[in-house]
Structure formats: structure tokens, C-alpha cells
Amino acid sequence: MAITVRTGNPFGLLAALRKAIDDKHIQTWSYDAQGDFTHTPAQWSGKAWLRPSVGAGTLVFGLLGQKNVVMKKSVYGVYHGRFIEELLTHFDHRFSTAVATADQQPRIDVFETVS
Fold first, then answer.
1. Which of 12, 31, 66, 79 is deepest in the core (most CB within 10 A)?
2. Can you name the residues that pair with 48 across neighbouring β-strands?
């Protein structure tokens, strides 16, 4: 479960995304000390995290769920869809494509539930 973004400058896009959050241009996403992104509206906050990794010409955001909680399709859909929406709204000039993978078997990951 991931979002793959094709870009000529993956480090630059990641830095711009963090700066837009820091500068409050993007208000519905935050990132933590590990650099993982989460959706901040109360209904979705802490339900999952998008962990960035940089490759040659790509920026991949792997989806991580809460520890011991099976991820619902609604969480998967909202995190992928709304994150791509933010990229299109704010950074359409910084990438060529953004693709979300499909996964019929949501997995359980290693994060504790945020209280």
C-alpha cells in the first residue's frame, strides 16, 4: 500500500511539502519526528501514517497503520486520495504522476494508537 510520485527532484518535493505544512499552507496534514505524515481532521487523525522514501526520480509514501488494528478500506482510501489531492493542489508543477497501489488485504503495522 503506497503512493508513488514521479518527480525530477524528490528531495525538493519532500522539503516543499514539509515547508507548506510548517507555513500553514496545508492545514489538514502534519508530520512527526520520524517524518511520517498523518491526516489531522479528528475523524482520521492517527489512523495511519505515510512514510516517505526517496528513490531515483521517485518519492514513495508507504502506508503504515496502527499496531494491532486491521486497517479499514475507508482509512486506506482517505489517506491515499486526500494526500494525492494535496499534491495536485499545491505541487502539480513539481511532479508528473502520482499513483496509489490497490491492496485487497489491508495489513496490521507497527504503530501504537495515538491517544
1. 79
2. 65
Given a cut of 70, whether residue 55 has pLDDT beyond it is: yes
Pairing of strands 97-100, 58-65: unpaired
Number of domains the chain is built from: 1
* b (16+ CB within 10 A) / e for 57-94: eebbbbbbbbeebebeeebbebbbeebbebbeeebeeb
Q: Give residue 68's pLDDT.
A: 86
Is the pLDDT score of 109 beyond 80? no
What is the identity of the amino acid at 38? T
Assigned C-alpha cell, 98 = 502520482
What percent of the chain has a predicted confidence (pLDDT) above 70? 89
Rg (CA), the chain: 13
Question: Does residue 41 fall inside a structural domain?
Answer: yes
One-letter amino acid identity for 26?
Answer: I
pTM, two decimals, is: 0.86
User: In angstroms, rounded to a whole number, what is the distance separating the alpha carbons of residues 104 and 1?
Assistant: 10
